[in-house]
Amino acid sequence: MNYSTMMNNGFITLNKQNMKSLSEIETTSKRASRAIGFSWGIAEEIGKCIRLLELFGFPGIKNLNQFCKQKIKKNSINLNWKYCF
Fold first, then answer.
1. Which residues pair with 22 in a beta bridge?
2. Which of 3, 16, 29, 70 would bridge with 47, disulfide CB 3.0–4.6 Å?
């Protein structure tokens, strides 16, 4: 799968189909981090870092997704969905 990121007026375009604002990226990353067991403070920092990675064209979302999948698989984590929504 080709992962290309392009910045356009504060939005990130992923694969030319999905547009996400940097705020959405930060919020979603924070919620995902919280769901796999990180404290709110750490989850907020993860959200900020993923936002900055995407801003500068690095694959932050892709790496966070890969990390979450590995952590869930390795630790058999039951996702805590109440922190996601």
1. none
2. 29
* Residue pair 31/42 in contact by the 8 Å Cβ criterion: no
Give 78: exposed, middle or buried? Use CB within 10 Å, 0-12, 13-18, 19+.
exposed
DSSP, residue by residue, 41-72: HHHHHHHHHHHHHHHTT--HHHHHHHHHHHHH
Query: In the β-sheet with 18-21, what is the strand arrangement from edge to edge?
Result: 5-8, 11-14, 18-21
The pLDDT tens digits for 48-57 are 999 999 989 8
Greatest distance between any 2 Cα atoms in the chain: 39
Tell me the pLDDT tens digit for each residue of 2-45: 344 444 544 555 554 566 788 899 999 999 899 888 999 999 99
d(CA 7, CA 31): 23
